[in-house]
Amino acid sequence: MPEGTVTAAGLRAAAVPADTEPEKAGVPGGPVPSGACSYTRRDVAFQGERSGRAPLTWGQRAIWHAIRRTAPNDHYFNIGRVLPLADRGRPVTVPEALRALAHLMERHESLRTRLLLPQDGEPAQSLTDAGTLTVTITRAAGLPEAAAEADALLGRLSSTRFDYPAEWPVRAALVTAGDRVTHAVLVLCHLAADGHAAEILVRDLRLLVRRGSAGRPPATTPLDLARDQHAAAGRRRGAAALAHWDAGYRAAPPTMFPDPRAEPRTPRFWTGRLVSPALARAVGTVAAAHRVSGSTVLLTASAALVAAGEGHRTAAVLPIVGNRTAGALRDLVSTLSQDGLFILDLAETAGLAESPGAREPSGPAEPPGPREPSGPAETAGLAGTFTGLLPAAYRAALRAYRAAVYDPVEWDALGERLSAEYGTDVHPYCCFNDMRLVERALPGGPSAAAGELAEARRRTTFGFPATQDRVACRYCLHVTEEGDALAVSLTADTAYLPPEAIRAHLYAMEELIVASAAGAPPPLTELRTLLETAGGGRP
Amino acid sequence: MTAPAAAEAALRGRVAVLVSRATDGEVTEEELLGAGVSLTALGVTSLALLRLIDAVEEEFGIVLDLDGPFRFLDDLDGLVGHLAGLGVAADGGNDA
Q1: How far apart are CA B82 and CA A405, in angstroms?
Q2: pLDDT tens for residues A462-490?
Q3: Chain A hits for B46, Cβ within 8 Å
Q4: Is some CB atom of chain B closer than 8 A to the CB atom of A398?
Q5: A124–B contact, CB cutoff 8 A
Q6: pLDDT, tens digit, for every residue of A311-321?
Q7: Residue B38 carries which DSSP code?
């Protein structure tokens, strides 16, 4: 078979549970579990269709650069998922689950692909056709305890960095209760998968367990994608994307957080997390009213608040872009996400009325008359309100999403060139990651009333759930869903954003969007004041 | 129908197919070919617009420039007019 071709026939079953070796602790290739639980290891053989070598895809290169910058704390990038298997359907046995895992390894070349680190030369990817995966199996006392056991396993398997050249980029475990498997646990190396890919793997594993097949094989593979990207057409597209970055960098300040404002804490990076049902409702309301996505509303709020807080007219934010719009990439298990560059000029866009069109603001009424500007000198000249930014922000976001496929090596070179030209580091150090895979339709109608939002805000919670020693950024905003709420996490460098500033920023974001949804979008001149006051009296 | 008009109608129909496909059929060709409704008002999401840009570029072998206050994604006729201006023909070729 020629290289670059994968057929359904290649996805033959080859699961051969090999040895069984109970032990108290210690999972080869993975972290050491704690406690007195008994673990079993099973080696599962898999036989894929082909092997091969290629340069890294641009997505792999991007995450490899991030991993190197974050090491030795790069377990930060591990992606974990738990697949419940006892919730419905017929009971699943251990051999069935192991067979499904073998099929999964055979189906997705990414799971058989490891990093090559030649002593002289660029890192590359190496696809292996056959091998064995060691699966950890743990027995729960009963069904009620199984979920907690799965979560504990997820935590343990996620807590150490991958051995990138040696270890398969997936760690797998099963939890059993009685004679049935209750949960499958997958921990993925970010070189092999991004958040979307993790969901594809969970979906496929479920199908393989339940039906024995996950359907047609994926349309392309990391190996073939790398070859396409490094060919002439791919390079042309990459160059066009980097032209956007060059222009964007030149339109924005060199960095969003130029000056430390506090002694850094130990650990230096703190994560603040706001969970808000009101924010979920408000984002949906503003998005519907202004015909933009909820993601654009959140990205714009993040950019506007960062700019206001630091006194910039122009914000530069790096949204993590999924890069899965091409049909062949939708079901590809690989890490396709790369940074985009979102440039928002508050002074230029806020006061401009876009011509009558689809995305002209048509939602909640603006407040009657402008409020008195109260911000510092930097905000003088800013006209309009937060929602007035959205039509231009929508276009800026589309540009950012379109320019997120490029060679990170050339991207690094661009940054170095501009840094040398400016005599200072050129990098926003300000990123935005909407990790929701889909934006759900709003429950209970398209818009929320002010009273409903005020009521919902009583359920907002805030905390500092995590700290890190090292993150290669100063401001990382993550958006996820939690039940009917949005969870917005801000991991920040405490030298630039002390914990109280992290908290204030997240409350200001909630206030900004909730007020906009309630028909009173805050003027841009008041954003800095909002950052100073929004957290007052809140939990 | 004159030849240029027929060519534009053919291009319009072709682009409507691409837009509909980009929405996974959520927005039909008939809806798109109706007069003067914006793509977002019809329910074309930003994700679908990105798919559409990919599809148009691949189909016609062009690059859509998103610099400046681009308007050609506002509605079907804006996009068709923009493509015609680039010398694109419905048969997938580029006349320019």
Answers
A1: 24
A2: 999 999 888 889 999 999 999 999 999 99
A3: 292-293, 295-296, 394, 397-398, 401
A4: yes
A5: no
A6: 999 999 999 99
A7: B
